[in-house]
Structures are given as structure tokens and as C-alpha cells.
Amino acid sequence: MTIRLSRRSFLAASGAAAALHPFSVRAQANQAHLRLMETTDIHVHVWPYDYYADEAIDTAGLARTAALIEGVRSEATNALLLDNGDFLQGNPMGDWVAYERGMEDGQMHPVIEAMNTLGYDAATLGNHEFNYGLPFLLSAVAGANFPVVTANVATQLGDTPTDDETLVPPYVILDTVVTDGAGETHPVRVGLIGFVPPQILQWDRSHLDGKVEVRDIVETAEAYVPQMKAEGADIIVAMAHTGIGAAEYEPMMENAAIPLAAVEGIDVILTGHHHRVFPGPDYEGTEGVDAEAGTIQGKPAVMAGFWGSHMGLIDLMLERTDAGWTIAGAEVEARPIYLRGEDRSVEPTVESVQPVLDATEDDHQATLDYVRRAVGKTDAPLHSYFALVADDPSVQIVSNAQTWYIEQMLAGTEHEGLPILSAAAPFKAGGRGGPDYYTDVEPGDIAIKNVADLYLYPNTVRAVKIDGATVREWLERSAGMFNQVTPGEQDQQLLNPDFPSYNFDVIDGVEYQIDLSEPSKYGSEGEVVNPDANRIKNLTFEGAPIDEDQEFIVATNNYRAGGGGSFPGADGSTTIFEAPDTNRDVIVRYIVEQGTVSPSADANWTFAPLEGTTVLFDTGPLGVRYADQVEGVTIEPMGEAQEGFFRYRIAL
Questions:
Q1: Other CB atoms closer than 10 Å to residue 331's CB: what's the count?
Q2: Contact 318, 32 (CB under 8 A)
Q3: Closest by alpha carbon to 610, among 487, 519, 513, 512?
Q4: Final residue of a domain: which of 348, 368, 388?
Q5: What's the pLDDT tens digit per position in 93-150?
Q6: In a 3-state reduction of DSSP, which class is residue 201?
Q7: For the domain that residue 479 is a member of, what is the CATH number?
Q8: Of the candidates 275, 301, 305, which has an alpha carbon nearest to the alpha carbon of residue 289?
Q9: How far apart are CA 425 and CA 422, in angstroms?
């Protein structure tokens, strides 16, 4: 049973105490201060714990965000706590509930348990709420002690949005009592309407096809807002699980916060989906946005990061006139649960609220058991000791999973049928991380936490469309990993120490050689430094020289597709699919579906032969166990190297 914290017990639990906000202090007899608190993109991060790494963290967790809530409430005479979607999926706790425990009638989802404990006033659905199917979603939100609203998802369409039969209520009007500056109480009717990206029909086609329809966000808002006003809403808050994207409206936009803010009658915008912070520098220079003041189209707006990293705050000074309540002033901030130093160190600003941990303790322990248990098997070792010198099994499984996922996502779209390539890079490959900083999973069981060893970062999957000539240039940029060598000379250093391993993309689906006698075409920042260089030789697709005019889909991640590493063909303009799923989640799903994976490297890339030439490279000492299994190169152990590494010679 959920115990909702009283004001006094929460203050005791969180140690919160604060002075009133200036709006509460300055409010006159006809004015009242209303504070809106937003969480967004929690993704089941109730505990401050990284289940993949199997360790506690200070940068996430609704239990930590909770420490801000009553302090925030105590600064205002009136406050509402709202969640902006993506709460049911996104970490192993969510997967454990969905795939293992299930949601039988009467069972509580742990994130709903936590939200009930904290006394949420309302929530909207995000796109990830649909990842486990409609029965799971509806069973989970049935346990909420607060309304869950979304206006643009319908089980049956009507002639207009207001005629639709929506999956959950489209909006709610809360009868809120506010205290004005003279101490008098007044009713204020706050309308809350929810929205989700229309792309859920693409992202979760298998769950939603034939079961729901989705409308455009702005079109839906324009239909419902007048109805909400007619029903007596004084203030209308758009709880929009959508990002801050283009200012110019386009039908069925995924990131529609700016056009949505222009809809007459909407007073406040809660945003999310982007996993960013607003107000703040992330959106500086965006048309229609004041990134410092926290307004979109002049209206107060907030985006509270992700995983509980921030509490979004919008303070409204309401003023009562003959026409009703209006907004006389507003202040916006995103309050963090931690600070990051110049050296990237993390300093927590709050501690977890114990009642939230207590409410979900059993679920947390069950999740720990889940991530430590096998979800599949590998019949080959997954290691990265030789990932920078030969095709590698730890990179291969990432490529395989990305290809498997993108094939499903593009089925039924205009891009179905185009050849799919997959770009992936080794993340744990020694370097500054030291001689133990390598992926190393032995054949046999794979636990979910092993996936963090395969894929370090919480990137999301992307697909870009480029031609064969750009595939070649992408690989030329990647080949900057290596120093130029002189043919016929012995024991030259192979690796460029200034080139990060995460920029060494291997592209699966094509075959090629890298000619080290040529200089790198691209410099360390992706600039062209040797325009006539051509390290990539014998580039083929399906056994024939690649057609430089042929179109290809390349599966990659959001960092690369958005311009990270400055790769040709990957600057954001070529992206044709932005997945709602992380690469980690895709790898887990791939392993679960396959049962046993066979990620043996297929040696689709090698070094071009250079007669009488040898090079040296260093790797972790434990790699000796796999040295005789490396495909495509002849390597010879040379003994210990500096700082605990082990040296090998490659005969080119």
C-alpha cells in the first residue's frame, strides 16, 4: 500500500526548509503565487543506481529528486507536481517488471509506487510508455493516484480531435485552491493537457498497429484548448512530451514545443523527450526561444533533464481580474540534484528520500537479481583487446544488434529495401583508461550488466542515408586511428595516441582494406588535411566494387549521426530515423531474441599488405588468451610494455 507523505513527514524525511519565493512574499490581495514542478524522462530511475554498472550513482534517481520537492513546496503557498512522460521504461527495473514480474491486476509498478508516495498531481504519457504494449501500459497507470492524460492518442478517431475516443483522458482540469497575498483562499481551475510524439506508431508498430491512431500535436491542441476554456480552465498547461525543435510548424512534428507554444490559450509549456535542460545553453540561439529566461514564444517553459537529474520549476504570479485569473509574471529554472566540477567530478546536492526507497526496496532488490542473471548466451568470447587492429567480436555484436533493430524500424517505410550497413566503434580499448580498460566477457552466459561492458554510453540509435562515396569518406575519417608507416621499415608505432577509440568506426556490410602507407585524409578534428590521400582500398559491397551513387542506410548512434566526431555524411542533415531506444536496450533485446549470439568477427576489414613492414601496438595483458584467435592479421607477442600494457608486433 502506498503511503502518501504528509507535508510534515516529508519535511522531516528530506530535511527541507526554505524561505518563501518572492512571488509568495510580494503577492497582493488580488494575486497568488502558483508553483509548477516538473519531472520528465525518469525512465524508471527511482533509485540512484546504475544497474548496468551495478553500482550506486549520484546523477540520477527520483528518490534524489524527491529531496527537492518538499523544499520547493515550502517556498510557495501553492504548488502542483507534474510528470511529463517516459516513466515506465528505460532501465533494467522497467524491463524486470515487463519481462519477468508482469503487471497483474492490482499490482503496482515501482515507478508509480514512488510517484504516489511523492504525491504527484498529474502526468502525461511519453513515447516509451508504449514499449511494452497497451495492456501493460494501462495496467501500470491504473495504479496511479493521479490522473494520466494524453490528448493525441485515440482508440477510435472522430471527425475532429474532440470527437476521438482517447486511450486515456485527453486532459484534466484541477480545482486548485490558492492563497492570495491577503491570506484569502480562492479556487483556480488549472487545465492540464498531454501530448506524445506521433512517431509512436512507427517506433512501436508491433504493439500499436491497428489498435490506436495518433494525431498531430498542434492540431490536437488547437481543438481541445477552446473546449478546456469553455469548461472553465483559468490556466492551461501543455504537458508535452516533445522536444524543442524547429520553430516552423510541420504536420506530425516529433519535436513540436515551439509551434505548440504559439497555440492561443496555452499559458505554460512543459517539455521533455530531448533529455536536455531548459532554460539553459542547450537551446541558445533557437528561434522563438529565450534560453536564459526560459520562455518559448514568450510563454514560460521548462525541460528537467532526464532520469531525475533536475526538478523543473515554473513560478507563476497569478492576478485576478474581472475576466478571471491571468499570469502577471513568471520565473523558470531547472534545479539540479548534483553539480559537476571542471574536472568532471560529481558533487551531489541532495540525498535520497528514505520513504521513496522504502516503497520500492523489494523491486530494487529483484532488479539486482535480474541484471546479475543471464539473459542469453554467447558462443564466442566478447573482448576488445584487438579491436583497434582487427575486426572484433565486441564491436560485431553491437553492429549485428543495430542492423537487426533498424531492419525492423524501417519496415513499411519509404526506406524499406535500401541496403543497411552498421557503424560501431570500440569504447573500452585501453588508452588513457589503462591496461585493464577492455571489454572481456567469456563464452557462456551474458547478464544484462555485461551490456554496459559492450556499450558504455546511453546513446540512442539513429539511421542516416548516404551514398557509396560518403561511405568511403566515413571510413577515411575513421582510418585516422593509425599513423602513416613507411613500407619496408620495421616496428613502427601503429596507433595515433591522439585519436579516440570511440571515433574508430568499423562499418559492417561492406569489405575494405586500410593502406597505412598513405597519410590520413582527415585531421584530428575531422578537417581535410591531405585531400589526395586514399587509405581505403578495395571497398566492396556484396562482392563488387561499391557504387558511389548507390544509397545506403547506416545504423549508428545519436552522437555520430548528429555530428559527433565530424564524420562525412553525419552532421544531422542525413538522419532519416531517430530511435526512441538506447543502443544498450537494443543490444539487450537482440540477445534475448537470439537466445545464443555468435558475435565472431567476420574480418570484413584488414590492413592492406605492405611487404617487409611491421608495426607495434600495445594492449591489455589479458589479451594474450585471445591472441591466436584474431582474424585477418598475423600478430606476435613481444612482451611487457610501459604502464602495465603488453606489446605485439603485426607483420603487414
A1: 16
A2: yes
A3: 487
A4: 368
A5: 998 999 889 998 789 999 999 999 999 999 999 998 998 899 999 999 999 999 999 9
A6: helix
A7: 3.90.780.10
A8: 301
A9: 10
